[in-house]
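Sample intake sheet
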Amino acid sequence: MNGNETSISEWKSLGGDPVSDGAGDPDVVFAHVSDLHGQLTPRYQVYYDNPTSKPSFKFGDDDRIIKRGGGVPLLAAKLEELRTGHDICTLMSGDTFHGSAVTTYTDGRAMLDPINEYIDPDIYVPGNWDYSNEAAEDGNFVELMDELDAPVLANNLYDWGTDDRLYDAYELLDVGGVSVGVVGMTNVYVDRMAPAFYEGKYRFGKHPALLEESAHAAHEDGADVVVAVTEIGLPWMVQAAKDCPSVDVMFSAHTHEYTYDPIVVEETETVVVESGMGEALGRVDLRVRDGDVQFRHHLYCLTEDGEHTPEPDADAQETVEAVREPFFADDPGFERGAGTLDRPLDTIVGETKTPLYRQSFLESAWNTLFNDALQAHFDTDLAVSHGFRYGTAIPPGEITLGQLYTFFPMTTPVARGVAYGQQLTSHMEEFLEDNFTPYPYDQEDGRVRNFSSNVEVTVDPTAKRGRRLVEMRIDGEPVDPEETYSVATFRRPGDPERDLGNCGFPFQDVQVDNGTIPVDVIVKYLDERSPVDYEVMGLVKTADDSGRAQNTPADGPYPFIQPGVDYQSGEAYCETAMIPRGNAFPEEGRNRKR
């Protein structure tokens, strides 16, 4: 036992009901690490005062708070603390090898020693950004996975040429005398991100029936309980929990949600949890009593002043400092893609009066600043970029070069082109469909497309397909479908020559600034305008007569899962089973080693 037992919730059935014997020890303890995104050291993060579930912080009069936490030394110390009292099964959802200057300029390899030596996962399931190093000439996803000490699971990842599955679908583990079947499913949307990440290399199975079939196979192999570790996103997993009754607990990742209260799907008796991004550690205890599986859950928020945060692991700290040291030299000299790192990461490059973060859905101050910097660089009519929802925070004060790389770690060149108004509005409609479709398996983005501050968008999240964009204005004027507009953005690796910024249509008059990456543009913008002062300005809003969409977890009920639409007054997300009960499960869900 250890001092954290008092923080764990009471034992419940998988259907959510309290059990008669609320005391007693677990048979199995799972620790869940997810979406590390290259976070070797503590970073700032924004936390929200959610109406129905929130971290135990004192918010005062504010609905959000910024704190610093996480990183490998803190995670390692917390895991060691748990391992002292229990036989721990450590599960790791991916997006580990991407998300900082250190990972960018080492093709993710800087994370290998810290993960293998101090996180020491029992199972690793790749995330979508783990494939991003394929965009570099010397990057290779399979080589990274092969150098992990943990078994890699992915029941839906196939070789491009042979259609052979690269990794096992599940693994049987003996934990605390219980046979645990762990099913792994990697992100299903990688082939919608960028061709350089997958084309000619990998294929991705998408059907949730693969998850159920792998769980069936694990049970047939003798598993007492079956858990799924995924990197697809919380809405997908909540729906899969309703469609895959053979899985007992689903460990979700990708959407960076914090399930302080677990999501219990009563009809299938399945529990879904997601464990934030790098500065949180999820814990699920299981025990089997008279054939019934019972659970309890806690999410440790490892902020530096947190109630359950230990002192950093000294050995892990030393390893991390050694990995990062070359990046703080006077001239690091790293190169990748269009990027060159010629200054130490702790170089002060600007200042902000207000906090900058992007843990939001419709609009964020950071995305607006980024697009304004792109627009200023090219002097265009507007700028457009991924409406990145996820990431760390920068509190008011100085901004370092390293912090900018955590917001945009890609060393792809910036670019500009010319587009018709109809292309811009049609593109926005496609993104709204990705986010606001009522069918969770079709949702992918988790953020609305963002533009420079001179663009205003009004949406109706509950309208039918093709009708969700109510209005789009540039400089106060409605977009003319037959007019052309100059657009600033960036070039994604491997995209067609005239397709820029993940827009999916051909631009005219394309100009690529091959020597400039997004971080360079932001540094220039900050140098000319610091201190900057950006807030959420209501650039993306819902129509007065439409359904509501919340921008942050502080704006509505928990859990804040994309699309954040109040379909049923907050009472339910989606109650419809998406897989016919008589569905024939594909044999691909079973183990076939490469």
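Comment: DSSP finds eleven helices and 29 strands in the chain. Confidence is low (pLDDT under 50) at residues 560-576, 581-585.
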